[in-house]
Amino acid sequence: MVSLSPEMSIAKLQRRMAELACYSFQPRPDQPTRHDQQTAFYNSQHAGVSFLLGGNGAGTTTLGLAKAVKFMTCDQPPPRKDTPFWIIAGSYQQVMGACWKEKLHQQGHLHPNDVDWQRIQWYKPNNDWPFTVHLKPWRGRPGKNWSISFKSYEQGRAAMQAESIGGFLFVEQFPWGILEETLRGCREYAFTGNKLAEFTPVDPELSMELREMEENSSLPEDWAIYRANTRCAMEAGHVTKQWYNTFFGMVPDQMKPVRESGLWGGFEGAIYPEFNSQLHCTPLDYDIPPACYHSRAIDYGFSADHAFVCLWGCRDGSGRWIIYDEYYSTDTSKTVVDHYMEIQDRHPWPQNNPYYGTTWVDHNLDCVRIASRMSEYAEGYDSMNVQLAHKNVDEGIEYVKMLLKPTINMIPGEPMQPRLKIDRKRCPNLMREMVSYRRQRQVSTGPNAAAPKDAPVKSKDDAVDAMRYLVFSEANQTGTTVSTMAHEHSGNRHGVQIESKKINRQRTVRR
Predict the structure, then answer these.
(1) Residues 48, 221: contact at Cβ < 8 Å?
(2) Is 259 exposed, middle or buried (0-12, 13-18, 19+ CB in 10 A)?
(3) Which of 2, 52, 153, 207 has the fewest CB atoms within 10 Å, i.e. the most exposed one?
(4) What single-letter DSSP state applies at residue 61?
(5) Is there a contact between 232 and 417 (Cβ–Cβ < 8 Å)?
(6) DSSP 8-state symbol, 508
(7) Is the pLDDT of residue 413 over 60?
C-alpha cells in the first residue's frame, strides 16, 4: 500500500497526482536530421522490437516508460487477468527506485486511478520498491488487467524463460541473450508497440549485435531504431544548459556522438577506433584468390572467460590479409588434443606446401609439444608445424592499426582499401572484440585512486590476440615493419588481379 500522511486522503493524493506527468507529458517534435525522434518512437506501432538509442539526459527512460504506460492504459486491452508487462533494468535498485518510485509513482507517469493499490506485491515497502504493480481491469473487460513486473538483468537468462508476457521495456544496455529469452515470452500475443528497449550504447560488448544489424541493413522484419539527442533536450528545457556544458566538457571527443545522440562511434579507451565493419569486413559472399599464402594463429584459453581460439588468414599478392575463419571454444570439457583435432578438421592444411605456412601460437610450451606430436595422440591426424608467436603487445597493435588504414588501390579509380579484411559471417567473435578491445581505465576517483595501467583490458581479447599473433608474426618473419609500411607509396600499388574461387566452407572429413 502507498503510505499517506494523516492530513492526506486517498482522494487528495489522486487529485494531486492527476496533475502530474501522466497528463502533461509530450514527446519532443521530431528532428530526424539531428537524431532526435521522440514523437516517432512514442507513436510507433511495430510488431518487432522498437529501440530508442539516446544520449545521456536525452529523456530516453522517461519516454520509454511513457510509451509503456500508453500501451497498457490506452492502446491494448489486456487478454487475461494479470497479464505481465516486464520492465527490466540492470539492478533492482535501478528498476524499482528509478523506474517505479521516481518516475512512474512520484512523478506521476502512471495515473494513480489505474493502479490496484491493495494488490501491490512489495520487495521493500518502506523504500517504495515493489516486485509487481497490478493495474485495474479495463473498462468493459472485468477480470482482465495488466500487471507490471520489475526485473533485473542480474537475475540472469534463466529467470526470463517460460512465462507468457504481453510486452516489455528494457532500461539501459542489456546482455543480448536476455532479450532473446524475453522475446520468446511474447510469442502468444501478436501485439504491436509492446516490445521496447532504450539505452545509451556506451558498452561495445552489449551493442555489437544491434550495431551490426543497423550498419548492414539487416534488422529483422518490423524492428526499428530511433534516437534521442541530449542537445535537443537541453534546448527544450529538459536539462539545464549548465549541466549540459559541464557534462560534455568532460566527455572525450570520440565518445560525444555516443553520449549525445546514441550514435555508434568510438568507445572510451578503444584500441582500434578506426575499425569500421563497412570498410574492414568482407561481403557476405566473397571469393578468395587461389594463389594466396595461408597462415594460422592460436591463442590458448581453457575457461568460460578465456576461449581457445584459432584464426585462419590468407595474404594475397597485394599484401592484404583476409581473416576468413575462426574456431572459438569455451568448452572446458575439451582437451588440447580435442581442440587440435577440430582445427585440423576445419580446413585442409597440406604439409610441405609453399602456400600454407606455420601456425603461430601463444607461449604455452606444453601445448606446443602436444601439437608437434599430434600424430601420436590422435590416429589419422598430422603433427602440426607450430612456432611461438611474436607477442610484443604495443608494437603488434601498431602494426594492426597500420593494416586497418586504407592504403591499397585495388582497382584504379576506386576508393583505397585497407590491408586487413575480416569475414563478417564466419568471424563474429573477432568482429565483436575489434570493437570492444580497449585499454584499462581508472575506475575510482579521489586522492587514493590507483592510476590505470597503460595496457589492454585482459577480458574478451582472445580473438584479437590471435589475430595480432598471426599478422605481426608473419610481418616479423618477412621483415615487414610498421616503419617500412608507413613509408611505402602504396597509393600507386595495385592489387594482383587473378581468378578467384569460393572458399571451401565445408567441414573436411578426415580418413
Answers:
(1) yes
(2) buried
(3) 2
(4) H
(5) no
(6) P
(7) yes
Categorize the per-residue pLDDT at 93 as very low, low, confident or very high, splitting at 50, 70 and 90. confident
Q: How far is CA 204 from CA 39, 85, 90, 163, in A?
A: 27, 28, 16, 30
Question: What is the fold, at CATH topology level, of the domain defined by 277-443+450-502?
Answer: Nucleotidyltransferase; domain 5 (3.30.420)
Report residue 217 as a C-alpha cell: 541493413
Residue 254 φ/ψ, nearest 5 degrees: -70, -15
**Amino acid type, 14:** Q
User: DSSP secondary structure string, 441-474?
Assistant: -----STTPPPPPSSB-SSS-HHHHHHHHHHHHH
Q: State the DSSP H helix or E strand holding residue 293, giving kind and residue range, or none if neither.
A: strand 293-299
Residue in the structure block whose three cell numbers are 611461438: 388
Identify the H or E element spanning 478: helix 462-478
Q: Which of 252, 334, 317, 282 is nearest to 498 (CA)?
A: 317
Fold of 10-261: Rossmann fold (3.40.50)
Q: How far is CA 121 from CA 125, 133, 147, 445, in A?
A: 9, 7, 11, 39
| H-helix segments, 153-255 | 176-184, 204-215, 230-235, 241-249
Residue 420: what residue type? Answer: L
Distance of CA 31 to the CA centre of its chain: 26
Domains 10-261 and 277-443+450-502 are alike in CATH topology? no
